[in-house]
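Listing 4. Sequential folding, example run.
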Amino acid sequence: MRITKYYSPNFDVKARSSKSITVIIIHYTGMQSERESLKRLISPTSKVSCHYLIKRNGDIFSLVEDKNIAWHAGKSMWGKYKNLNKNSIGIELENKGHKHGYQSFTKPQITKLIQLCKNLKKKYMIKNKFILGHSDVAPLRKIDPGEKFPWNYLSSKGVGIYPKKSRQKKKSQKTTDIRTFFRNLYKIGYRYLKIKFRKKIIKNFQRRYRQKRVDGVLDLETLKISEILAKKSNIA
């Protein structure tokens, strides 16, 4: 797999051990063009970066070496991890994002992303449950990679987790409860769980797992999906 080196100065000076790399975090650039995205990711004044940037034509840039801590996740938590920069590989996908005309991701982009994730999984023994979106680890601040990102397809190719479609019978239906939903999310790995931000949290969960209905309403299907994922999760 061809990867082009493109240096960003935005990383911690002290290198980390390969054993500390346990998470992959997927982002979109949220900029109007590839040129603007790259300019920001390599600018010393921006104080942001990533390890890899995948263009819409599938070309991959390496901006920060894996051994270095890039600045992409910001204030974040997942399971036992806090401030995930130190434990993660950050991958940016070129996309204008919700503010500038959110686009579907291209086939070349997703194909190369799957290849890259598989290589990283093998190299660092990263588990599928630790392949995450920025909105998973920082749901009160971020919404990327968003509802057009094909998590289901990635999972079918062995990258990440996506639940099988639930077949909920009428007899098993019950009322929804936000506290039950939050307990499920905690088991899955989510940590920013504040009742006053319930709509934002539900919407970000739906952006990943119920992309045809991103309305922030906790219905039975959204609750059921959280239950399926919670049962399969062993995150402490």
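-- end of first protein; second protein begins --
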Amino acid sequence: MASSLLALIDDIASVLDDIAALTKVATGKTAGVLGDDLALNAQQVTGVRADRELPVVWAVAKGSFRNKAILVPAALLISAFAPWAVTPLLMIGGAFLCFEGFEKLAHRFLHSKAEDTAHNRELAQALTQPVDMATLENDKIKGAIRTDFVLSAEIIAITLGTVAAAPLLTRSRS
């Protein structure tokens, strides 16, 4: 009787040790979920009146929570019912990030100074026109939420790839 109790306790300790190890790895990967939110917060209030900064940040935070409420269960469902899809999702996300990086480099090297100067002149001229602040705020909020969705999806896919071989219960805790 005592040996079976010790065996059960040993099995429980082994499972908890596995969860702790995977949680440590996943925590390192998911730290980016907070980092992407910090990166968004710095840019979303640029050009917004000081008295409207907190409402804009709150609107983006609500959108970010909604994104995570969609992405985390979707990731767990994918890993439970189609674990083969995790690697293609990682590849698609990586290709998208490569495309964005290439696009920035291509813009820098393929556009002349004259084009950049003309574009800056157009932007400066647009600033002299009256602007609907509500539309500007809504556009900033939508853009920030969309960026948060893409970054969070990639980070969650990376985390899922890290713990893909673990049982579903362990993955959901990570």
